[in-house]
Amino acid sequence: VPSGGYTSIGNVRDPLNPAPRDKMESFFLGETLKYLFLLFSDDNELISLDKYVFNTEAHPLPIWPSTS
Question: What family is this protein classified in (predicted)?
Fold first, then answer.
C-alpha cells in the first residue's frame, strides 16, 4: 500500500538503504494486533483469562477443569 501499512525491512545490515519489503505478514494483523487489542482494552468482561488461554496463533482456547 503506497499510502501506509506495515512491513519489514529488506536488509537490516544495510543502514544506508533501509528499503521496505513489498509484503505485510498475515500474522501481524491476525496475532500481534489481537494481542495489543486485548492488552489495552478497558473492558474487563471482554474475555476471562481465568477461563481461556491463548495459543501461539492468538486463538482463545477454553481451560478445562482437571479430572481427578
Answer: Belongs to the glycosyl hydrolase 47 family.
Q: How far is CA 31 from CA 17, 59, 65, in A?
A: 29, 8, 26
Nine-digit cell string for 67: 479430572
Cell of 46: 471482554
Among 14-18, 27-31, 46-50, 59-63, the least confident range: 27-31
Per-position b or e across 18-57, b if 16+ CB within 10 A of its CB: eeeeeeeeeeeeebeebeeeeeeeeeeeeeeeeeeeeeee
- 38 vs 58: CA distance, rounded Å: 10
> Is 7 annotated for ligand binding?
no
